[in-house]
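If it is no trouble, can you show me the amino acids of a protein and the tokens describing how it folds?
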Amino acid sequence: MPLVSFLLSFVISEKYSWIVSFTAPFLLLLGALCAAFVFFYLPADQHYLREVLWFKVSDHAISGGLFVNNLSGTMLLVVNFISFLVHVYSVGYMAGDSSIRRYFAMLGLFTFAMLVIVLADNLLLLFVGWELVGFSSYMLIGHWKEKPQAATAAKKAFIFNRIGDAGFLVGLMILWALHGSFNINDWSSPHAPTPWQTAASLCIFCGVIGKSAQFPLLSWLPDAMEGPTPVSALIHAATMVAAGVYLVIRIFNLFTPASLDIVAIVGTTTASIGALAALGQNDIKRILAYSTISQLGFMVTALGTGRPDAALLHLFTHAFFKAGLFLAAGSIIQSLHQAQQQAHTHFDVQDIRNLGGLRKKLPMVFLVFIISGSSLAGLPLFSGFLSKDAILTGIVSWAGGSVSWKWFLAAILVGVSFITVMYTFRMIWTIFFGDEKRTDGLSIIESPIVMKAPIIVLALCSLWIIISWNPFMHTRWTSPGLEHHWGVTTFSIIWVVAAFGVAYILRDKSFQARILQKGFYLDQYYQAITTNIGLKMTQLTAWIDRDCIDGLIHATAYAQVLIAHVTGWIDRALVDGTVNGLVSFVRGVGTVTRSFQDGKIQLYIFWSVFTIIIFLIWAML
């Protein structure tokens, strides 16, 4: 259905482009209904596989197919459902956009590419979807071509993903050399892990680092906020950035213990950087972007600790509350832009320092922020509490009873959960409580129902009920094998309440540390590397090319010309001269000898006299 939406958006003429606003959401609704049927129909212990011959290389036949089990069925439902809600929301948010056909076409291609990743039965086909996601995200982030920042952000996202994907390709080559197959279902957990197995898994994880914005390739995600807000919601919620986490879950058997330790370290580093950076941001979308980075770090850490089921659970809950927060933020932005146009004033509506007291003017958005933000912060009675509790339980079990570096990572994640409450509380308090600042006197109207309905649904899906009947215990239908520890649950409740209290006490404090605002200067480091090292390497290679290689080539050419002139002179003066001189000598001898008997009496007399003279001279000597 998303692929049909993509194709249909180009079939419809520009004159009737408004039709796309109806056909695209309708097709995604059909896709979501089909996904729901698959999710609820397919038994948890069964799977469906359909393969066809894709192509052949020599004696190797490469197949491509669709594989559906409980894992892919869950992702199938989440991706289609979130994408459908984003399509509906976009009808209102993007109304009047001059490139509405291209926008909905790329949304359809983006969703289709993500479904290829979800359903692919082998890594080669998955990689095709992986690259299509990168291309379509590039188009969506840079949708507003008239904004230079959007074009720059799109290029940055594309380049960062290509860096990670280079590692992915190397991993595919290693796997082919090891197994002679790309089929995911052919691999089992290695009983005796080899260094090549570790190398293959870490190379593929490089692709995850790029796609899921892990350290060090994470700075593209906040910049991707230059695209339309519905695009931000789709990228951050259940599609592009979630693709990396899903990939690791899908091929988890491939990862060796050594590679999982590296995954855990990368995830913890990412979670801490994202949380601290979110605490220092003032742009509402950048706060949510760094929050996404931090939550992805949570998921990746869960994978590194051997808890893919906990990572999947948090991916599931994060998709709903983060999409709800982004779309609610989009509603605030659009409402304030409209109010600005009516009042003929201007200020940055995404800067939370310009806002305040909006709970009365935007009550529905305020309620959505409270519910979805509480789930993000991990408060009890919300889905985020259950999924984070599952991750923390897994990490405590992984760390074990003895003191080791694993407990250091566990402590960092506990601290990150504390900071998450603080930046979430700061964001909501600054926007909706206190006195109005720049918005005072503006006539602010809430978004139309086509934008309200999706965020209300997402807010309801942020409650604990989608995970478990018990709001404090995650024994539910999505991941029945997850372990539960009441001690960790009790600690989580006390910890999050304490964090809430500290956040309230510090509610008016501004965390304006430069290092946090700049995202730990990662972009500056990249720029320095590009400028100082990359540029100098470019200059060095240019000098080698110009002065060394070109100089050697020119010197060789000049030497060849000189040798050609010398050999030409030798050929012309010596070789040809010798041959021509010999010929002339023979010709002269022949001419002389012919004159001895050519029948002329004068010559006979001449030679006779000449001979006599010679004899006389000889006799005289």
Notes: The CA atoms of residues 282 and 394 lie 33 Å apart. The mean pLDDT is 87.
